[in-house]
Amino acid sequence: MPITVKDYTWEETETSVFITVPLKGVQARKTDIFSTDKYIKVNYPPYLFEVDLFAPVVDDKSTAQVGNGTVVFKLVKKDPGIWTQLAASDAGDKKAMIEKREKEIEKAQQRAEEQKKAAAERKRQEQKYALREQMRLEEEERRRVENAKKAEREQAMTELETWKQQQVQSEIIKRDENQVKPEKLERRNEVAKEEGQKLPVSAHTAQKIEPAKKKEQTAKSKLSMFDDDDANIPAIRSKGKIEVSFTPRVFPTPVRESKLHEEEEWLKKQTEAMRAAEIDDPNLSEEEKNPLWLKEKGDGFYKSGNVLAAVNAYSQAIRMDSKMPALYSNRAACHLQIRNFHKAAQDSSRALELLTPPVPANAAARCKAHVRRGTSLCQLEMYVEGLMDYEAALKIDPKNETLAQDAERIRQIIQGSTGKNDNDALESLD
């Protein structure tokens, strides 16, 4: 049977109640605390402390701190005022206390179930929002590809129309030249007949020439007229060679008939598959090929202080799966510990690239990535760029007072009101 604790102390103000319960040498991790808006229980076998409060409190704003051999409750009163007593009037009745305890436990279970359902619903809504954002980005990419194809088609049609116009103009020029030639041939044949020479043109060609008009000019004048006109005929164009070069393409289809976006995705997947095949080391176990297992190993190394081993674990996990933003963000934290600020900034940037689209589900990860990149840039004395990352993190988590203080400190360094010696303090920004 548990021993009831009665040597507790309590104090109150208009808005708060402070309760101190001694643990009597029991370890804090063996302490079980349960509380609602009207009931508090602390169970640390063989001792038990429970109280039915005089008035309700705000359970969400109340806190319990375990340490130094005590449990200290800070309760926020729902209705401000002085209680004058901690327990309700019927607290001495054991039967009523047991009923009260069972009722409060049932109420707490119902509230926990409601919170679980609300959290699940909120998670579903966030997933739906993330899916809608992803669909919107894919739709924008599809429209961009369609617009690019449309622009290429329009350009090709424009070039084709231009070529057709050039062909029509060249045909007109050739037709005009052919209309001029029969008149010249007629003059040449007349001159040749008068001088008794053989006709220089074939009979088939001569039949096509219309009968020449009678002219009174002499043969010499006709010859001179013919020579003058012949001198104006342009010379025959010299032969040339046109070289055409084509853009190299992996797929044999023309660009206007290909699906560029799908081809790029296919090539990217093929590259990743080839990379995975290259790192298929027979000496590695199945667990060592699992990026999630490697991530957990890296987390364990980091918490134990072995930062270099954590970097190696994260790097191996990235080789297995380069699409996990947590791997880059955690490796950036490791690089910050060993003061490798350039690589920390690079890994943070890569993590932010993968954390798209920006949705509430990845808000905490994006906030950490911004803070880690901002810290790296400040350590490299790029304070303006670092401040931009801290402001981006504050937009994600505007209630974070630590971020606000660090951002204000960076502003003071930029404005010159704080010396550069304060740069060492930036190591603790993350």
UniProtKB/TrEMBL annotation:
Main location: other
Alphabetical keyword list: Cell projection, Cytoplasm, Neurogenesis, Nucleus, Repeat, TPR repeat
Region spans: Disordered: 107-127, 174-203
Entry's Gene Ontology BP terms: cilium movement; inner dynein arm assembly; nervous system development; outer dynein arm assembly
Recorded superkingdom: Eukaryota
Biased composition range(s): Basic and acidic residues: 174-197
Keyword Transcription recorded: no
Gene3D superfamilies attached to this UniProt entry: 2.60.40.790, Tetratricopeptide repeat domain
InterPro entries to which the protein is assigned, alphabetical: CS_dom, CS_DYX1C1, Dynein_assembly_factor_4, HSP20-like_chaperone, TPR-like_helical_dom_sf, TPR_rpt
Cited PROSITE patterns: CS
Any Gene Ontology CC annotation: nucleus
Residues of the signal peptide: none
SUPFAM superfamilies according to UniProt: HSP20-like chaperones, TPR-like
Cellular compartment(s): Cell projection, Neuron projection; Dynein axonemal particle; Nucleus
Residue ranges occupied by any CS domain in the UniProt entry: 3-87
Name recorded for this polypeptide: Dynein axonemal assembly factor 4
Gene, per the UniProt record: LOC118407842
